[in-house]
Every structure is written in structure tokens, then in C-alpha cells.
Amino acid sequence: MDTNLNNKVAVVTGAGGVICSEMAKSLAAMGVKTALVDINAEAVEKLAQEIEKEFKVTSIGVPASVLDKDSLLEAKKIINSKLGSIDYLINGAGGNSPLATSGVDQMVDADMENLDETFFGMKMEGFDKVFDLNFKGTILPTMVFSMDMIEKKEGSIVNVSSMNSYRPLTRIAAYSAAKAAVNNFTQWLSVHFSKMGVRVNAIAPGFLLTNQNRFLLTDEETGEPTARGVKIINNTPMERYGTPQELQGTLLYLLSDWSAFVTGVVIPVDGGFSAYSGV
Ligand code: NAD
Question: Half-sphere exposure (CA, 13 Å, Cβ side) for 272?
């Protein structure tokens, strides 16, 4: 069965980052033309050049913010003129803020002396930032980039959620809640678009060891896992971290015609983390 990916046009937000740069490469490897949208203009410009060189498929870096509708509309104009009508959207821009992260996993009596490390020390500014980037940052690009798909009654949207969307992880209250909102919105929009030929799904990556979180999960000096790293591995039945490359199969499946009757699902790619009760 043909996947129908070849020669399609995909917009990837957050393409300057660890996960979505790999996603963009896997799309290019399948002959998909990519528009790499990120606030980090330098990163996406460099990536576009790398992709064109390695895969011989058109790729463009398009600086824009997922929180700024005007910049997204401007980006769409550029994408349409350089690559044509949009077929796929990957909503990858996202992340956490230390302002909405507690210092302790669970509050105990002794924390009454240092409330800053608990829920009471969290800043609303942090909640706003995290909800804006992950939740509104999924909605706004979808509003702008899905119109081409709606007009031609064909297309696929993949949102990037997280393991913390099913059950919150300790400390990262806002990030967990914002990704739960992404799952909920994925289902809502899948129903809303279901008669317009546009499918909406999400991927929930489990724990990946990336440059951004390496310092949290492994001890810089010894290379041994930190206490949080040990907990993660103990609760991942496959007993290892995933890699950004291991998200690619699920992404290509959700975009391609192989999943033509699949909409409104959030697929965990997590080495079994979400299936394991810990016992
Ligand atoms: P990353 O920080 O490497 O990449 C995020 C990218 O988003 C960066 O290039 C950044 O410049 C861009 N960005 C930030 N604000 C933006 C804005 N307003 N407009 C446009 N671009 C913006 O992060 P990552 O680890 O590659 O994560 C990518 C996605 O995967 C995120 O949605 C994240 O929540 C999710 N995720 C990551 C992990 C993980 O272990 N790294 C696990 C589960 C889910």
C-alpha cells in the first residue's frame, strides 16, 4: 500500500528543537517538502540547508512564533508561495517553565518553613507561559495552517503531547495540565473536522534522553542516573530511555494513508511507561 507521503507539504512547528528536527528529517526521507517554523530563525535555516543537502527534497526555514497569529499568517504566505498548498501540520513547539515547577515532589510538614519549594511558590506567570506555548501554541498554528487542508478536504494534523498528559508527573503541574489540554483538544478537533477529510491525532512521547534534560536525568560527573532518572527507568518496562528517532514510525503512520480511518487518538511511544502500574 502506498503511503502517499511523497511530494506532500508539511509544516513542522518547533522544528529547531531536538524532537521536531528529527521529525522533519524523517519526513524529508519520505519525500515530504518541509516548512520549518520556529522562533529560532538560525536553527531552522541551518536545518533546512542540511535537509536539502542530505535528502534532496525542498525544505525552508520560516521564522514565526506559534503565539503570534500575524507571524503565522505571514509564514503561511511564504510557505504557499515556495512549497504550495499545505497537507500536514505537526504541532511540535512546546516546553516547560521553571516558574511553574515545584521544588519538591510531595509537600511534607517541614516544607511549611519553605513554602517557595511547594505548590504555594509557583507563579501564575509560569502557568500562563506554559499554557500559552503548549496549548494556545497548538491551537493558533492549527487555525492558520489547516485551512489549506479543509479547502481540499484532505490532510493530517499531529500534535506533540507527552506522557504527563495521562497522569501528571511530580513537580511539573502546569506542563502536565497543558499537555492534558492538548490531548483533549486533539479529540475535540478530530470530531469537528471529521466530515472535512482532515484527521487530527497526537503522539505522547515517553522519556527521551536529550541534551535539554540530560543534566536532570544523569549525574554530570559520574554519568550515573539521578534519583529521578532511576525512578523513570524503574517505571519504564523496557528499562531504557527512548530516542527522538523512535517517534518517527508513529509520526509517518499518523500522517500517511496507512492510518486513513484513524482520528482522535493519542498514541504513547513510551517503552510501556503508561501501561505499567509499578507493581
Ligand atoms: P526543544 O526545546 O528542543 O524544542 C522546542 C522548539 O520550540 C525550540 O526550537 C524553540 O525555539 C521552539 N519554540 C519555542 N517557543 C516557540 C514559539 N513561540 N514559536 C515557535 N517555536 C517556538 O524541545 P523538544 O524536547 O524537542 O520538544 C518538542 C516537543 O516534544 C514539545 O512539545 C515537548 O513538550 C514535547 N515532548 C518532549 C519530550 C522530551 O523528552 N524532550 C517528551 C515528551 C514531549
Answer: 11
- pLDDT tens per residue across span 113-138: 999 999 999 999 999 999 999 999 99
Q: Quick one: cell of 221?
A: 560527573
Instruction: Compute the distance from residue 93 Cα to the ligand 1 centre, in Å.
Output: 4
Q: Which amino acid is at 47?
A: L
Q: How far apart are CA 238 and CA 225, in angstroms?
A: 16
pLDDT at 214: 78
Pocket test for ligand 1, best of 12, 13, 20 (most atoms within 8 A of CB): 20
Residue 1 has a pLDDT of: 67
In this prediction the pTM is 0.97
Query: Which atom from ligand 1 is nearest to the alpha carbon of 209?
Result: 40
172 forms beta bridges with none
State yes or no: pLDDT of 76 exceeds 70. yes
Q: Which residue ranges have their beta carbon within 6 Å of ligand 1?
A: 13-14, 16-20, 38-40, 43, 65-67, 92-95, 133, 137, 160, 162, 205, 208, 210, 212-213
Dist. CA 177–CA 149, nearest whole Å: 29
> Which candidate, 68, 54, 3, 2, places its Cα nearest to that of 24?
54
Mean pLDDT to the nearest integer, 144-166? 98
Q: Which residue has the cell 503548549?
A: 134
Task: Take residue 4 and report the three cell numbers written for it.
Answer: 502517499
Q: First-to-last CA distance in the chain?
A: 41
* pLDDT score for 215: 75
